[in-house]
Amino acid sequence: MVRNEHTSDSFLLLPISDDANDFFVASYESRERTSKLIIAALEDNTRIEAQLKTSAGAIQIGGRSYSTGQTVSFALGKLQTYLVQHEYDLTVTHITSSKPISVVSGNNCANVPHDVTACDYLAEQLLPVRFWQKEYLCAKLKTRRNNRLRMISSKNDALVHIGATLVTLNEGEYYEYVSSSDAVTSVISNHPVLIL
To answer: Which pLDDT tens digit goes with each residue over 42-66?
Structure first.
């Protein structure tokens, strides 16, 4: 958990399975150069590929400039980490690896929602795609006016029913849902999705 005077966030540490090798990043539009992801390898000679996605702007990695859709490849040794940060949202950057890895993504300073001026710290250890589900129940946060959920699809033609809304998502697309109702929100999809 990170707790600061005006903002805090935490995440549940997840165990790393042998098949933790396919992830989609979840982040948020940033106020500073702070949308980020960090990859940690569990074994030597781990090959990583990251297909970059950004809402705007080139990404500088290792002294080179990359555009959205380009893939960065590199290797990590046991317990080595690799940090990527960008001034724009990195949501749906696709990360695959030859051996098990852990991926944490988030943001040092984000306005959530975009039109509210506040500096929210966000952090999440990502669930590998293999463990995504087709059904979720999301509780209402009692101290907030709205529930804000992001869903990410790893497959094409995902039909997602969220509350009374139906959306179609393709691989590497996301949708942000906002509800002011004081009720549990159900999410049902024909393909597994990630909900944050």
So the answer is: 999 999 999 998 878 788 888 888 9
In the CATH hierarchy, which top-level class contains the domain 2-130? mainly beta
Separation CA 46–CA 97 (nearest Å): 7
* DSSP per-residue codes, 21-41: -EEE-----BSSS-EEEEEEE
pTM recorded for the entire structure:
0.88
The answer to whether 144 touches 33, Cβ cutoff 8 Å, is no
Q: Are 109 and 30 in contact (CB under 8 A)?
A: yes
165, two tokens: 């809304």
Question: 138 pairs with which residues across the strands?
Answer: 185
Please check whether residue 25 is in contact with residue 93, taking contact to mean a CB–CB distance below 8 angstroms: yes
Q: Where are the domains of the chain?
A: 2-130, 132-195
Dump the DSSP string for 45-56. Answer: SEEEEEE---SS
